[in-house]
Amino acid sequence: MMQGIWAISHLYPHPRQTCKPDFLKNISLNFSPFRGLIYHFLKNIHIMKICVSSILSFVFVVAAVSFKASAQTISDKEIKTGTAPITNSLNYISKLKPISYSYDQAGYKQLNLPGGAQYGFIAADVKQVLPIVVGNKHSWYQAGKGSQRVVTTPEVDLKQLVPLLVSAIQEQQVQIEQLKLEVQQLKSAK
Fold this sequence. Notes:
By secondary structure, this protein is of the alpha+beta class. The longest helix is centred in the last third of the chain and has 32 residues, at 158-189. The strands form 3 sheets. Strands 1-3-2 form a 3-stranded antiparallel beta sheet, with no helix packed on it. α3 (89-95) crosses α5 (158-189). The model is unreliable at 1-35 and 38-62 (pLDDT under 50). The protein contains 5 helices and 7 strands, in the order βαββααββαββα.
């Protein structure tokens, strides 16, 4: 359950009396959108009063209305269909060409590109190997007074590469274990 709090506060002059619980009737609600909300949740009202006595004595009143909303949790397994293990991922990963690069910030100021060294891929190269992980990024920028333009650039979705990388590591581990076994067999045959 999520819990939300909506609060009204009001400062009242108080002539050296104790705080009384009937203060709610004195709160004026000049903002109509919340009038119904307070009425509806009146039984859930939590009241906090702070009395301050000094030369001028005030009562600070806060009424908070709590409300509840439910949230639904759905397993990702429930919403994903056609699941299948990833195979031959090592073949795909070995065809990718990771690069280091810097953006041409001076030539493309309007795109607010990050500075410094970057690591990644050329999207066109990745698209030849794994077209499913390449999409388009749309960047809007001001092109004069009252005019906007959009630049579309291909972009590699690096999050989609993670499952392929995990699968490739698992494939390599199987190969490593097989090679270890062969080495053991060769050593014991001598």
